[in-house]
Amino acid sequence: MPLIGDTPESWPVESSVDLHRDDWVVAFRSDQVRSPRDPDGPTFRRLVVEHPGACVAMAVDADDRVLCLRQYRHPAQMRFLELPAGVMDDPSEEPQGVAVRELREEAELEAGRWTHLLSVWASPGVSAERHHLFLAEDLRPASRGDFALHHEEADMETLWVPYADLLEGVLAGTVQDAPVALAVLAVHARRQRGQ
Questions:
Q1: In this structure, which of 118, 127, 133, 147 has its CB flanked by the most CB atoms within 10 Å?
Q2: Per residue in 14-30, pLDDT tens?
Q3: Chain segment 100-113, per-residue pLDDT in tens
Q4: Residues of the chain with pLDDT under 70
């Protein structure tokens, strides 16, 4: 049976206007798009958040505990239980390399074994942001080097959470960060399949 899946497609953009762009990684633009099914019809406006993507590392130790962070997120006005993660702000970096870097910088850990879990679009109706989620195992301490935590990162709390408790939190709706939920459920599915 063939796998179902998404397919690349690009509709014509008649014009594009930057609404916000600076030296930070995120930009915001307005596109006038034309449907290829109606090439003579009117264009319509779509707002797009440009984002280079992010990588997430779910670090699980030998006792089946997950390294989690508690971090404040201003847009949501919440302090979330999260996993080490970061933006793909260097186009030459591969997703796993970003996950390796973020685990080292945010959790002072490195992993001997990495498994790609999922790559998903965060909110494709408005954003070009893509998340790459990895499982990190065979953990050992590592130095963050000269990386310094700033802003919300400087206020992060680090904690080890039993995987079973994290799964229950996701299913109960008390753990609501999407990358955490996706990584936890992907690991659960892999375990159910014996992977």
A1: 133
A2: 999 999 999 888 999 99
A3: 999 999 999 999 99
A4: 1-2, 149-154
**Quick one: 45 exposed, middle or buried, by C-beta within 10 A (0-12, 13-18, 19+)?**
exposed
Alpha-carbon 88 to chain mean position: 10
Record the pTM: 0.91
Q: Is 152 a catalytic residue?
A: yes
Q: What is the DSSP string of 41-86?
A: S--EEEEEEE---EEEEEEB-TTSEEEEEEEEEGGGTEEEEE--EE
Contact 140, 112 (CB under 8 A): yes
Inside any domain, residue 7: no
Exactly one of 152, 153, 157, 168 is catalytic; name it: 152
Domain identity same for 176 and 104: yes
**115 pairs with which residues across the strands?**
135
Q: Is there a single domain that holds both residue 94 and residue 58?
A: yes
